[in-house]
């Protein structure tokens, strides 16, 4: 079982807008970890958008699949918006269905920290790609 898991997933530390080659991988889990907010924010939202392209350096467009996020419905920009607690310190694991996506994807994570005392909010991301279409023998 352990070998099977190692050969069927790929975990990538991830920065917003990095290019991900998802060839052969049909699903994924995106982890978005919010750090502690500073400056007393009145609200925090996290917008997560998925774009796709056939080539690594080509023009990326919003994914057409509104259900790329398993538990959320994406808008016309291939995005969802999550509301976070105003203190930050949250972890969001988002299940992704990548079967209908092109070979290359980019996931843009935008944190909006609202308030009148110059609040600051940061996010760290990682993605685990799974369901490798080529299984080990």
Order of helices and strands: HEEEEEEEEE
Q: What is the end-to-end distance?
A: 13 Å
**Oligomeric status:** single chain
Q: Low-confidence parts lasting 5 or more residues at pLDDT below 50?
A: none
Main beta-sheet strand count, sense and barrel state: 5 strands, antiparallel
Given helix and strand content, the structural type is mainly beta
Which percent range fits the helix content? under 10%
Number of strands: 9
Rg, Å, rounded: 16 Å
Mean pLDDT: 90
Question: What form results from the Cα inertia axes?
Answer: globular
The share of residues in extended strands comes to over 45%
Helical element count? 1
How are the secondary structure elements laid out?
Layout: H1 2-8, E1 10-14, E2 19-21, E3 25-36, E4 43-53, E5 61-62, E6 79-84, E7 88-97, E8 104-114, E9 123-132
Antiparallel strand pairs: 1-9, 2-8, 3-7, 3-9, 4-5, 4-6, 4-8
Structure overview:
The protein has 137 residues and is mainly beta. Helix content is 5%, strand content 51%. It is built from 1 helix and 9 strands; from the N terminus they run H-E-E-E-E-E-E-E-E-E. Strands 2, 4, 5, 6 and 8 form a 5-stranded antiparallel beta sheet that branches. Strands 1-9-3-7 form a 4-stranded antiparallel beta sheet. A hairpin with a 7-residue loop joins strand 4 and strand 5. The chain is globular, with a radius of gyration of 16 Å. The two termini are 13 Å apart.
